[in-house]
Design goal:
13-stranded mixed beta sheet; alpha/beta; binds zinc ion; 17 strands; globular; four-stranded antiparallel beta sheet; 6 helices; OB fold (Dihydrolipoamide Acetyltransferase, E2P); Aminopeptidase
Amino acid sequence: MQSQRILSIKTPVGPPIEIIRHTFSSQLPKPAKRVSLVAGLHGDELEGLYICHQLIETLKKLEAENAIKGEVHIYPAANPQALDAGTRLWPFFSIDINRTFGEKNTPFLASKVSRTLFEDLRSHSDLVVDFHASNLHLIELPQIRIIQGFEKKLVPLAELCNVDLIWVHPHAEIFESTLGYNLNKAKIPTLVIETGICLRIHKTYCNQIVSGILNLLQKTGTIKSVEPLTEVAMPKLVQPKNVAMVQAAHAGLFIKQVEVGKTLNKGEKIGDLIDPVQGQVLEEIRSPCSGLLFTLREHPLTGKGAPLARIASEESQ
Ligand SMILES: [Zn+2]
């Protein structure tokens, strides 16, 4: 493994901000496939860092066995200053780095960071995986989100990654400044994985994704592991019409009764929305359909209209 600093920015008083790329070079004269893995664009999303840690450990062993047939690049901490602070945003100007990619980006230093990262990825990759966790409010089952229009190329790749579901969702303008959208537009297939919840590490989900990425690397010819890899499961493919969203009709505390990943029956209870001051149950939250509960509210403080759950249903919603 070789490590390279792709960017170094001076800070007012502390050490410089640096983005590191680790490279596992091909042990063939011509790399079979070049795959890049990116984590930590949002500084409070730690699941991707742990996934990269696990993958680096395994890839070092594979390198010693001459099993690297393509090139693997790992950017384990793409937003180091935000990661140090444990905040979603880039600390200097409170900017979301994952909203500074693309042509319409801001003239700030943050966009220099995103431009450098984008160009480095573009020149080194045939395929990119960008790891994200959820926000502080919701926990997510391991999933890949694909913007409609990119699904033809991305679904077959996403199926190799051992996630629970692939969610194809409509395009929205907000995605146009993300890393994933811009790489896909530049014809570099990019999978955006969303898993768990921010500021936590869900080991089971992370290990599930590590198996998926190793499977992706094996199936694309990037690695050739002699030892059999863990079997991966086929994800559920979910179209926008199959996603049912449950929102709070009242402000209160959400007390969940089930865990994310459960297959629910129509009408099954998900939890209660309570008024703790008056000692009242404001609303019993029940599933509007049968299906897989793939998003669930973890943060109990709930405003009116806040998302409580998402269910992937077999029927149109
Ligand atoms: Zn994120």
